[in-house]
Amino acid sequence: MGADNSTQPPPFLDTPWRQINWKDKQSDLQYVKNYKPHIEGRQLRILLHGPVGAGKSSFINSVKSVLQGKMCAAALVHDMSQDYFTKKYTTYKIEKENPSTFYPFVFNDIMGLEPIKGVLVDDIKLALMGRVKEDYKFNPEHKLSDGDQYYNTEVNPNDEVQVLVCVIPADTVNLISKEVIRKIQEIREVASELGIPQVAVITRIDQACPEIQKDLKNAYKSTYLKEKMEQFSMEVGIPMNCIFHVKNYSEEINLNDDVDSLILSPLRHIIDFGEDFMNHKLSQSEGSHSYD
């Protein structure tokens, strides 16, 4: 007689455990297009970090593609033949319909996390605080220090990071070393001390599950991915409602509504979290001044 598998959970749920606007991506798209910070002249800065090859640059390109309605490649994508492909601190802006205007949020990609080398946690802390200047070349041996030409001594509020996004590949999540997980934990602690909201984006979900590759609408039905999300949430402390599945554009030459919907879901929440943080800092600042 065969083994009794009745107690094992099914690989896919009958109904998704999280709802996505599959049929109405336009509402999320319009929300992002209409977004304007309440504070005049401010922009949201979104910092991406994660293991090498996790899909940070691809996520930036995918966001730009969705918002511009065409395939775009602003950020150079990691070449697996090269170590630490992203080496400089680069700000990526996204043009609106008018080429001379941009969305009021920007992305920064940094050198990937590695067990021994990779970006230093101290440099990430400086970036979060707005201390890292554009084009700073990350050095896995030495941290950026005061007095360096790329150390920002006078911080403009727009230099500071409002949202920290950890990008993790679903298909190799089991292979992420304990040392990299420890670095992610350290980075989260630093961001938490600064009060910066944090989000995790799980990429390559189609590579982790054949059924999702067939139909992206299975993204939040997979019990395997849900278990991996729960495990990652426990390991690094990011709540489940701040972790999102995405499929970056990679081989496609045309846009796909389902891919767009998965990209827009975390983007909308990233904007909301960043806006709340920005307004909270302003209220704290005004509150402290009132006692002067």
Task: Explain how this protein is built.
The protein starts with 24 loop residues before the first helix and ends with a helix. It is of the alpha/beta class and 292 residues long. It has a single domain (43-284), classed as Rossmann fold. Strands 2-3-1-4-5-6 form a six-stranded mixed β-sheet, with helices on both faces. The protein has helices at residues 25-34, 56-68, 121-128, 178-193, 205-208, 210-214, 223-236, 257-289, and strands at residues 44-49, 90-92, 105-109, 163-169, 198-203, 243-245. It has eight helices and six strands; from the N terminus they run H-E-H-E-E-H-E-H-E-H-H-H-E-H.
Summarize this entry quickly.
With 292 residues, the chain is of the alpha/beta class. The protein has helices spanning 25-34, 56-68, 121-128, 178-193, 205-208, 210-214, 223-236, 257-289; strands at residues 44-49, 90-92, 105-109, 163-169, 198-203, 243-245. Helix 3 (121-128) packs parallel to helix 4 (178-193).
Number of helices: 8
Fraction of residues in H or I helices: 25-40%
Number of strands: 6
**Cα radius of gyration in angstroms:** 20 Å
**Overall body shape:** globular
Which spans of ≥5 residues are poorly predicted at pLDDT below 50? 80-84
Mean pLDDT over the full residue set: 89
Largest sheet: 6 strands, mixed
- Structural class designation: alpha/beta
State the CATH superfamily name. P-loop containing nucleotide triphosphate hydrolases
Strand content: 5-15%
